């Protein structure tokens, strides 16, 4: 038995020799690697060289841009520019009123984006009569000094007037289907804008402004209105409580808003934002209207009702004051 045990012990020793050698080699290599890493980590020149190389690559890929020297009055943090109106919403979105911004400063800052603005308008049937005034006044007041694409949706391309455009601006005439009722024309524009945003606008412009064709620009409308998603306060409901807004109050409709909900009442005549956000808005409104149509119901103020429902649950990042929609009725 003792002989057998000695033989077994000898076999174990011989079989452990390769394993022991392998472990020793592994320990030596690990120690060398660890020592190298410590040396590199303790070498500040090596770290700075790596950081400098990364920064250099970043600078070569993107040149830093800065505003030119601009002289303007210093803002006073203790004195708001307007004290008679609300300037910011509870979700911290600015409300744009006259006298609350510096046009020159905004223009200089916006030019660094090298952006193009798209302006969509629908001129179907007799509404082509409004195009001349719309385009003439837009050329005088809308986004002056910036690149603009006018996207005119019409069923009568031959009735689109020829207007001399400023440099960097172009007119794009797009064929659109007309409908018997003006309500259908108004509602279907959500579908059209949604489709064209996905198929075309995303590759051509950075922002979309969606306007009614019977708008007459009478004063500056510039880059101060642009944001990821903006809506415009309806001048007719400026002093109303939300339980008296013209929201859709029937629960059967997708545009339904209860009387104890709502922030503001937005007009459907002027809204916009980045192309992606406008696509999301118009697609959601169109889908909601199709559900209503399938259920045999039509919202009180059609696409405007659905716009208000969308902006209730997807807060705009900027709101335009009713000054952007004043007309003779509200003066």
UniProtKB/TrEMBL annotation:
Note on how the cofactor is bound: Binds 1 Mn(2+) ion per subunit.
Function summary: Synthesizes the galactose-alpha(1,3)-galactose group by catalyzing the transfer of a galactose residue, with an alpha-1,3 linkage, on terminal lactosaminide (Gal-beta-1,4-GlcNAc-R) disaccharide borne by a glycoprotein or a glycolipid. Preferentially glycosylates proteins, can synthesize galactose-alpha(1,3)-galactose on glycoproteins but cannot synthesize the glycolipid called isogloboside 3 (iGb3).
Subcellular location: Membrane
Protein name in the entry: ABO, alpha 1-3-N-acetylgalactosaminyltransferase and alpha 1-3-galactosyltransferase
Keyword Cytoplasm attributed: no
Amino acids binding an alpha-L-fucosyl-(1->2)-beta-D-galactosyl derivative: 234, 304, 327
Cofactors named for this entry: Mn(2+)
GO MF assignments: glycoprotein-fucosylgalactoside alpha-N-acetylgalactosaminyltransferase activity; metal ion binding
Main location: membrane
UniProt keyword list: Glycosyltransferase, Manganese, Membrane, Metal-binding, Signal-anchor, Transferase, Transmembrane, Transmembrane helix
Residues noted as binding Mn(2+) in the record, renumbered to the chain: 212, 214
Gene3D superfamilies assigned: Spore Coat Polysaccharide Biosynthesis Protein SpsA, Chain A
Family: Belongs to the glycosyltransferase 6 family.
UniProt record, GO biological process: carbohydrate metabolic process
An example Gene Ontology CC term for this record: membrane
Family annotation (InterPro entries): Glyco_trans_6 (IPR005076), Nucleotide-diphossugar_trans (IPR029044)
Topology in the lipid bilayer: Single-pass type II membrane protein
Domain of life, source organism: Eukaryota
Record-listed UDP-N-acetyl-alpha-D-galactosamine binding positions: 127, 212-214
SUPFAM superfamilies from the UniProt entry: Nucleotide-diphospho-sugar transferases
Active site, UniProt feature: 304
Residue ranges of the TM segments: 16-37
